[in-house]
Design brief:
Shape: globular
Helix content: 40-55%
Strand order of the largest sheet: 1-2-3-4
Distance between the termini: 56 Å
Radius of gyration: 18 Å
Number of domains: 1
Number of strands: 4
Strand content: 25-35%
Oligomer: single chain
Order of helices and strands: HEEEE
Structural class: alpha+beta
Length: 83
């Protein structure tokens, strides 16, 4: 096998592993946001997408079409506000 083919195969493998790692992080983030919203007694069902606004600040979109801003306030508490 040529050096070019080996290098290309290594780059593709690295890219696939990085992508799967990011997908796993996204899945755990969505689960965490779902739990935060549920623990605050707000209707959601399941968070299906999230957009990061800043450090510890997300806009979470739920399966039932509710949207919440989930963030850590100045007192260090996690807050979910309906958008």
């Amino acid at each position: 096998m040529s050096k070019f083919v080996k290098c290309w195969a290594l780059m593709v493998t690295t890219a696939l592993l990085a992508a799967s790692s990011l997908a796993a992080d996204d899945a755990s983030l969505l689960k965490d946001l779902t739990a935060v919203i549920a623990l605050q007694g707000l209707p959601c069902g399941q968070v299906v997408s999230a957009v990061r606004q800043g450090d510890n600040d997300y806009i979470a979109s739920c399966k039932d079409r509710n949207r919440y801003r989930v963030y850590v306030n100045a007192a260090g508490r996690v807050v979910a506000q309906k958008q």
